[in-house]
Design brief:
heterodimer, A: about 110 residues, mainly beta, four-stranded antiparallel beta sheet, B: about 120 residues, six-stranded mixed beta sheet, about 0% helix
Chain lengths: ~110, ~120
Amino acid sequence: EAGVTQFPSHSVIEKGQTVTLRCDPISGHDNLYWYRRVMGKEIKFLLHFVKESKQDESGMPNNRFLAERTGGTYSTLKVQPAELEDSGVYFCASSQVSDSEAFFGQGTRLTVV
Amino acid sequence: AQSVTQLGSHVSVSEGALVLLRCNYSSSVPPYLFWYVQYPNQGLQLLLKYTTGATLVKGINGFEAEFKKSETSFHLTKPSAHMSDAAEYFCAVTVRSSNTGKLIFGQGTTLQVKP
């Protein structure tokens, strides 16, 4: 069974550009989470989807971040326009139900220069 | 509000020595507690978790952790370190019976194992 897959693994973009990160959860997992780790800091929750609906988006830093999960399968996280402070590792995780084990992807390392 | 504090961002032990990674949490409601490990270029992998029941929890690769409510701690231990244990370890907490499984993480502890 495939695990949680994230694309790309690395992305380097210039300040002001747009970047879209993708997450493919484990098949059948209704719950999908995005987290972010800025260098030197803890991993922080961004948002939680249940199927295609946003259950909790309290961690989204500002309106430059847009997450979607059309059809309740894969999810995208778009940053537009990117700022230097957006650099970090973006993790995606999925679970069958909200309080079951969450499986994490390998992360996307985003560098904004 | 919940929070997690991991004491020591870097811990170094010799191969064969005891591993002790410290985690203290703050939660106004009974928590679920987790330890995750991240090996280089990989995602986070669940080592073990405490939900209810026995307070000493055993996980993969010989790790275990004990939930101590009175000390609000969930320290991770392994009797004998192996070179392959070198990785970054994260303690995390979530709220029981919530409709979201979002995790609150500590800052992470990098474990170095010396030969």
